[in-house]
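Exam revision sheet. Question 4 asks you to relate a sequence to its structure. Input first:
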Amino acid sequence: MVGWIILVVVIVVALWFVGTYNMFITLRNRVKNAWAQIDVQLKRRYDLIPNLVETVKGYAAHEKEVFEKVTELRTRAMSASGPKEVGEANNMLTGALKTLFAVAEAYPELKANENFLKLQEELTNTENKIAFSRQFYNDIVMRYNMAQEKIPAALVAKVMGLTPSEYYPVPEEERGNVKVSF
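Answer key, structure tokens:
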């Protein structure tokens, strides 16, 4: 009788270990997939930026410094790796794009240009998709990291050699309170 109890306990522990191991594999792959989705949206953003810069350049040729800054930050963002570095580089690029749009505001004929309006709309849509992808990624990372910290699953995580994943950082300017004035 004791032998059967030991056998049942061993089987239950083995099944729990396999289930927990598979949960970590699933979560790890979801983190990778979520990061790949951010990468897809960032690639789309990087592809739109040269077209946007060229369109604005045609109207505001003397704003050379702004164009160079956007191009430089785009290159830096494309070569970044890891959530923290990619996030920081893209946050700087977002700031440069705001400057580019501010330059565009000074040129009424540019603001009315159909190509510019389409590019601006595409970039806005892409920014929204990046924000959603970033949120989804951070949600999955939170689940993955929490699963590694909870007992008894933490034992399996330690055996697997898992380490917590990095969150995609929130831009500093998005952390403060929004000022609304009428």
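Marking note for examiners. Residues 10 and 60 are 73 Å apart (CA to CA).
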